[in-house]
Design a protein that fits this description.
Transmembrane segments: 39-59, 71-100, 106-127, 139-156
Main location: membrane
GO cellular component, one term: membrane
Distance between the termini: 78 Å
CATH topology of the largest domain: Methane Monooxygenase Hydroxylase, Chain G, domain 1
CATH class of the largest domain: Mainly Alpha
Subcellular location: Membrane
Pfam families: FUSC_2
């Protein structure tokens, strides 16, 4: 019985972040309900719903969600009133409202979340018992729920955006190092096509984590720019490390693909297996050590000795390949040479010495995660150009 009770307790203690998020969400919904009911009769329900939908794992994301709710309230409520005045309340009004809201969200280039909030908010506003007074109360309740959710989201996660960025970079780096170590052991022992396919599948899964790490690094940098207790230099450094780990993961996937192609064509020559395994092992160790330094102090740079060992292992592999060039299959030799290039790029990413990390603009977060895919200024310029095409030439000078 005692063992079962301890196991039950560990279900929650081992998931501290999740428990904290649901407790904060529950507190935000309860507070929104209470405040909404104090201000309006039956106003707590709408406020609680909006608060539950708006609270996210960070203040930055909740602010963005709250902004989406406000846009949804303004656009959705206006569209709902127009539909009711023309068609009255009924299924036609509901259908027309959803269609018009979706069109409006598309025209304003709202992101995925805000686009969903527009028709949802409109349906809440035109719900049963709709009157002008009720609609106004529901609109205000929506704003109250969003505001309370933004306030409570400060406590929705046990770590800061910078701390979450460090965790994600470290997790992705350690998984990459583990995969390289596995590939090193497989190459040394003589791997099969099935094993290489398994490595490639794992590498593809690692690449799929890149957008999440990038979004978190962008959040940390954005948060540091406007929150007084955050350090901007630290956030910028973490952003650079996020770009570096992205380049590292891509090279790990390329290595896995190269090994798979080699297995399909008969495998790597035994004369070079040991050197390739040593090079992959050196890369794995360098990444692991780099992650350890990041967890100990995010401001510490990579140890140059580790990346030097990687480059030396790659140079030794090149010398061996050249010595055996007359006996080696040309295609397999080219693939083995490409591994050296991949390892050099990983080394450049770890010590952040490559211009590709600093001289090339990195895409922002995916459009689907933004509230506004285009800035209001950019949208205004586009609309003005379209309007000028319709307006007579004599009047265009005034626009």
């Amino acid at each position: 019985m005692k063992h079962q009770f301890q196991r039950f307790i560990r279900l929650f203690t081992d998931r501290r972040a999740w428990v904290q998020q649901i407790l904060v969400t529950a507190a935000a919904a309860a507070t929104a309900w209470q405040v909404g009911d104090l201000l309006f009769t039956n106003g707590g329900l709408v406020a609680a719903i909006v608060a539950s939908l708006t609270v996210r794992i960070s203040l930055h994301k909740s602010t963005r969600e709250g902004f989406g709710q406000i846009l949804g309230t303004a656009i959705g409520a206006g569209t709902a009133f127009v539909s009711i005045s023309v068609f009255g309340f009924g299924f036609i009004t509901v259908a027309v409202t959803v269609i018009l809201c979706s069109v409006a969200a598309r025209a304003l280039h709202l992101g995925e979340v805000a686009s969903i909030n527009v028709p949802v908010t409109a349906l809440i506003v035109i719900g049963p018992g709709i009157t002008e007074n009720n609609a106004q109360n529901r609109m205000v309740s929506t704003l109250i729920g969003a505001a309370i959710a933004i306030l409570f989201s400060y406590w929705a996660h046990p770590k800061t955006p910078a701390g979450r960025t460090i965790d994600q970079i470290a997790s992705l780096g350690l998984r990459s190092a583990k995969l390289l170590a596995t590939m090193s052991e497989g190459v040394a022992a003589g791997f099969t096509q099935d094993e290489a396919g398994n490595w490639l599948a794992k590498a593809r899964l690692l690449v799929e984590e890149i957008p999440r790490v990038r979004a978190q690094a962008i959040e940390a940098r954005t948060f540091a720019r406007w929150f007084p207790t955050a350090e901007l230099d630290e956030a910028e450094e973490l952003y650079s490390r996020g770009v570096a780990v992205e380049h590292t993961v891509v090279q790990v996937r390329t290595i896995a693909r190269t090994l798979f192609d080699s297995a399909v064509d008969g495998g790597i020559a035994q004369s070079t297996q040991r050197k390739i395994a040593e090079a992959l092992s050196a890369a794995s160790f360098a990444i692991s050590a780099n992650v350890g330094e990041l967890l100990a102090d995010e401001n510490v740079q990579a140890d140059p000795a580790l990346t030097d060992d990687m480059r030396q292992a790659g140079a030794a592999l090149v010398d061996l390949l050249i010595d055996h060039s007359s006996k080696s299959d040309p295609e397999q030799m080219v693939r083995s040479m490409s591994l050296v290039t991949n390892l050099d790029r990983i080394a450049d990413s770890l010590d952040q010495s490559s211009p590709a990390l600093h001289s090339v603009a990195v895409p922002n977060e995916p459009d689907g995660q933004k509230v506004l895919r285009l800035s209001p200024l950019e949208q205004g310029r586009k609309w003005r150009k379209r309007m000028k095409k319709v307006i007579p030439k004599k009047l265009r000078k005034y626009f």
